[in-house]
Amino acid sequence: MCDLKPQTYLANHQHVQQLMNNLINNAVKYNKQKGNLNIHSYLVDQDYIIEVSDTGRGISLIDQGRVFERFFRCDAGRDKETGGTGLGLAIVKHIVQYYKGTIHLESELGKGTTFKVVLPIIKDSL
């Protein structure tokens, strides 16, 4: 399900494309067969929120603290099947930080993962 509200946000389109591409590709890659993928965007106060959720294998509490590190892969043996360098979420984190935003992770093993990106809308810069 995709529920993206129209919103103007001043950003480099390649940054936004890479951010969304990495989050969505991970949600597809680590989802279970016939699982759900949800993408939502909305405004809260002066923040633009983007949420990407899947119903996949989830991320352990131990690994949740490291998923934004460069080259970190939760299960290197299993990830060899799906490919990847372990850079995607590190890139997402740096893009979000560049725009002075935050990224939050909620995950439960066997139930899925949600990444919530909060990007501040800075009216003075427009």
Strands, helices and their partners?
Layout: E1 2-4, H1 13-29, E2 37-44, E3 47-54, H2 61-64, H3 76-82, H4 88-98, E4 102-108, E5 112-120
Parallel strand pairs: 1-2
Antiparallel strand pairs: 2-3, 3-5, 4-5
Helix pairs in contact: 1-4
> How much β-strand is present in the residues?
25-35%
SS-derived structural category: alpha+beta
Percent of residues in helices: 25-40%
Number of strands: 5
| Average residue-wise pLDDT | 84
Major beta-sheet overview:
5 strands, mixed
Order of helices and strands: EHEEHHHEE
Structural shape: globular
Spatial order of the strands forming the largest sheet? 1-2-3-5-4
How many helices in DSSP terms? Answer: 4
List segments where confidence is low: pLDDT < 50 over at least 5 consecutive residues: 76-80
What is the CA-CA span between the terminal residues? 31 Å
- Rg measurement, Å: 15 Å
Notes on the protein architecture:
- The chain is α+β, with helices and mostly antiparallel strands and 126 residues long.
- It has four helices and five strands; from the N terminus they run E-H-E-E-H-H-H-E-E.
- It has helices at residues 13-29, 61-64, 76-82, 88-98, and strands at 2-4, 37-44, 47-54, 102-108, 112-120.
- The chain has a five-stranded mixed β-sheet with strand order 1-2-3-5-4.
- A hairpin with a 2-residue loop joins strand 2 (37-44) and strand 3.
- Helix 1 (13-29) runs antiparallel to helix 4 (88-98).
- The longest helix is centred in the first third of the chain and has 17 residues, at 13-29.
- The termini are far apart.
- The model is unreliable at 76-80 (pLDDT under 50).
